[in-house]
Amino acid sequence: LSHVLTAAPPAVSAPALGSEGVEVVTAAMAAHPDDPELQVAASTALSQMAVDVSQADRIVSSGGVDLLFAVLARHSDDATASVVVSSLVVIMMQLQDAGGGRLAALSLPDKHLHHLLAALSRNATSSGLQEVGLVALRLMAMTRARALLARTAGVIDAILRAMKHGLALAPAAAEAGGQTRSQGKPEERGGG
Q1: Distances (CA, A) of 171 to 68, 119, 160
Q2: CA spacing 20 to 30 A to 108: which of 94, 146, 156, 166?
């Protein structure tokens, strides 16, 4: 399986896996979490399978979305994160386009947002990842994660401002956090 995923071009590997492709790919991802090459190939295969809405539903039900976020937590380098976040966007867009509340019903634990934000922060200079990450954040806002997104709006606003101005994310997030802390302490604002 590893050979099929990593050696064959992605357009060939997804159909080569057959009708149980989603389950085969997610099983490989779960079995080899420390193999970034396999994770990238599997992420690409999942995004290609997600073109069919029934397959996108299978990706969700088989834990594929959770596995993609787990890849972000383990392998957040620019190349891997770009492929994984792009795959997440394809899957979420397919769910949104299919209607029927599929995207809104997608339950994403808080840790998924944190994994995405951490990957964006670690790759602050990657404009491609930042752009696809913004799309992912917007799509996540349409899921059951919207309450978490509302609670973390200040951090997300700082990230979006940083992206808009081409600034590094870590200083912008630190600045936002510093402003929040100093608002409650007059001595830090200089108002003594």
Answers
A1: 27, 15, 13
A2: 166
Q: What are phi and psi for residue 9, nearest 5 degrees?
A: -60, 145
Q: What are phi and psi of 185, to 5 degrees?
A: -130, 100
> What pTM was estimated for this model as a whole?
0.73
Cα–Cα dist 122/168, whole Å:
9
**Cα–Cα distance, 2 to 9 (Å, whole number):** 13
Contact 139, 91 (CB under 8 A): no
Of how many residues is the chain composed?
192
Nearest to 16 by CA among 29, 32, 3: 3
Q: pLDDT tens digit string along 40-57? A: 999 998 998 888 888 899
